[in-house]
Amino acid sequence: MSERLLVLIMIGLILLAGCSSPVQSGSVNENGEWEPDRSIEIIAPSAAGGGWDTTARMLARTIDEENLANHGFGVVNKPGGGGAVGWAYIHKRNDPHNLFISSPPIHFIALNGQSPYGYEDFTPIANLIADYGAFAVRADARWDSLDELFAEMREEPENVTVVGHSSPGSMDHMQFILFANAAGVDITKIRYISDQEGGAMTSVLNGSIDVVSTGVSDAAEQARAGKMKVLGITAPERLQGDEFLETLPTGREQGIDTEFIVWRGIFGPPDMTEEQLAFYESIFKATSESEAFAEIRNMYGWDERFMNSTEFKAFLDEQSIELEGVLKELGFLRD
Questions:
Q1: What family classification does the UniProt entry report for this protein (predicted)?
Q2: 100: alpha, beta or left, given left = phi > 0 and alpha = psi -120 to 50?
Q3: I want to staple 92 with a disulfide (CB 3.0 to 4.6 A). Which of 18, 23, 62, 141 is the partner?
Q4: In whole angstroms, what separates CA 249 from the centre of its chain?
């Protein structure tokens, strides 16, 4: 049984199971403000320990410890399908007490047909942070910059192999494709290898693969140890707050006019009211502006990137159009 079919079966079971689930909607007080009638559940649509889970838990912890809401915020993990199982759960319940954390895979999974739900099927509430990708090679590799790498790839793109943790058409793959495309490389000829078992770094270090496309923190760990060198990062400008991270060059300063933000934001169910949205926007804005959450961002190397619901929706619309165009060029989507 294929992974995609298994995920669709899991989603179908969630939808059937959800048919009998009561939806509690809270109430609107005399001031016209919505109030929840129980604790809030933030779904991390992944197993414990990843970026979604960590962001959700740090967010819930800050809200509770800083007394930013009158009801508790808890985190529940619902892994499966790269997020699709958790999204199906939220969509079916359609309950304003159930939210979820997400990032760019909500574009990729939907566009690739692995989930019937994309960002437009939910209510974007707020974006909270920005993380970034990095492109790294072994310390003794022949390239010292993205400019050198892409100059070679413009001539012979198939001679360079790229590895990432995500599947083809998803995050590690697409961040490299977007930069290569901006650098004038024929992206249809790029050799990308998916290693979802955790061996991507090892394959570059042992010389079997040329380039790894990954997160900044993962690449920086190997570069600090002198085992790899980071050719470029996907941030719009150099990272601040860490002496080593400040040395990592961006694509823009090497003449590649693009960026890729690994945003992480909060979504709600599809039919949220204006009062419900206002309730959550206020809480998440206060969380983002708190000193406690600033310390968490510094601890994990995240950038502050708060967007309210309107700004977040406009950002998602723009990113979706860009990614859909590149996926079509690669042959992942049909016109």
A1: Belongs to the UPF0065 (bug) family.
A2: beta
A3: 18
A4: 21
